[in-house]
What we know:
The protein is of the alpha/beta class.
Amino acid sequence: MPEDIRPYKDGFPIIAIIVADFYPEIADNLLNAALQTLTRAGIAEKDIVTLRVPGAFEVPFAAELAHRRLKPRAIITLGAVIRGETPHFDYVCRACVDGLQKMNSPGPSALNSEDRPCCPVLFGILTVDNRNQASARSTPLAQLDPSRPASNKGAETAEAALRMIRLVDGTGPGLPARLVESEQGGSW
């Protein structure tokens, strides 16, 4: 475990990952890359909990449930929504984004009655026009070629989660002193 990243409390996970399974191959590629990134950074597998849901619409509910019951230091959301011929894409994307955004904003949400953000919630849901775009953004890490415009947003989202935990803890590089104040006298 990295010295600067600890569980909220013993027995609780450091990271909760919510995976929308509607496109299983894409979801699995995103999840595998996120897990590889976290374990390479020193997060033990026992400190990562993965919850799978049917699709992106269900992700905000699962994220709030994970926050309430598991108390992770960060929540990573992964999956894909691919545009079709109807407005369904827009409704699913908007519901997912709005639900997760509420968790990252001060004030109460459905399950989070505390008047503050619950914990960093990272958005790794691909919102793309077609399957080719989704595949290009969920390439397995072992297959990434720096000369091609492919990536894995699961890995990028996991890296962002670690940075956000450090920001909340005040241990991130280059933080202004006023963001690193203690909880007793600070602005958190």
